[in-house]
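Researcher: Please predict.
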Amino acid sequence: MQADMKTLCRSNQRHDARAGFTLTELVVASSMSTIVAAGVMTSFIWCLQQASLCTKIAWSQKEAMNTSGKLTMYIRNASEVVDIDEVEGTWVELRFPDGTTGRLVYSNAVAELRDGRLYIQRTNGTDLIVARGLTEIQGDQGYTTPMFSKTRNNALRVAYRVAEPAASGGRDANDGPYAANVRFGVCLRNAEE
């Protein structure tokens, strides 16, 4: 029994002399934990960026649907295309069944770059903003597509793009990944054949 006690005491002494970790073990453990923490942070940041992008895409798509619905309603209720900007395609004048006219106008002031507005000017003097934050669609060669173009006597083609505003209230310079391009045609419901 005494031999067992002596063996037990010796093993405790050896264990006490070696309590703790060596410098090599600490360096390896801290390196591994740093690598794991960096991987977790990288994944977290990537997920936040993707969530932000998805939010911007959803906003642009929703706004594109809302604006196209409003424009379709205005144009469809017209009875005649009175005049259209043939050069730049930034406005179209429509006559309505009650005899009034309205001009849909796209305006993008230079001071407010990438903050285009589309509004309707009625003959009774009221201006109603239909959509904000629009820009013209730009082709691969850098030319812009006309916003309004007449396809037939009683039909118009409309083309524009929408993107979520930046935090500053203006537009992001590189909004290509989440901007929504809108192109649709509308027939005037009240046009005479």
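Model: The first strand starts at residue 80 and ends at 84.
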